[in-house]
Design brief:
The protein is α+β, with helices and mostly antiparallel strands. The chain folds into two domains: 60 residues, no CATH class; 85 residues, no CATH class. Strands 3, 4, 5, 6 and 7 form a five-stranded mixed β-sheet that branches.
């Protein structure tokens, strides 16, 4: 195994921004927990062939990152990561997926982007964007399972469909 390459500062900032300056596991942020430190973590550890590609990087708080470590049994699976994200958007999504294999969702743009990124890695969901512009507080409330974290910004209306063979 070669020497670990340092993640460049510019890439670190891109990952933190993409992940909304929140831990991807517990959802905590320094804005709500001032004592909290965020770190950029490798989803697939470097020791197991992971790279510094942005798709393999995620924001974790120091506690989740230290707890995760390099032990595969402690690493959060991408499926679990997606489930945590869907639960954070709205717990009804997982219920709908379990019952019907699909759900129509309205989510904040940042949450949707993270879901797209994780789905590309995991591949168990087909995401079909329903084209329209949804902006503002409570905009799109009646279009599907609505985001709990309405920040008043842009929303994405999409269908989430479980792919055959996906967990």
């Amino acid at each position: 195994m070669g020497k670990r390459k340092t993640i460049p500062s510019k890439l670190t900032l891109k990952v933190l921004k993409r992940d909304n300056y929140k831990c991807c596991i517990c959802g905590k942020s320094p804005s709500t927990h001032p004592e909290l430190s965020l770190e950029v973590d490798h989803i697939l550890p470097v020791s197991k062939g992971g790279t510094n590609d942005i798709e393999n990087l995620q924001t974790l708080c120091i506690y989740c990152n230290r707890g995760k470590g390099n032990d595969d049994s402690l690493n959060i699976e991408i499926k679990e990561h997606i489930d945590i994200l869907l639960e954070r958007i709205n717990p009804e999504i997982l219920k709908q997926l379990s019952a019907n294999g699909s759900a129509r969702v309205v989510a904040n743009e940042a949450d949707f982007s993270e879901l797209m990124r994780l789905s590309e890695i995991y591949g168990a969901y087909d995401i079909q964007v329903i084209p329209n512009t949804i902006m503002g507080y409570h905009a799109g409330y009646n279009l599907g399972i609505y985001t709990i974290n309405d920040n008043g910004g842009s929303k994405v209306n999409f269908a989430l469909i479980r792919v055959a063979g996906g967990d």
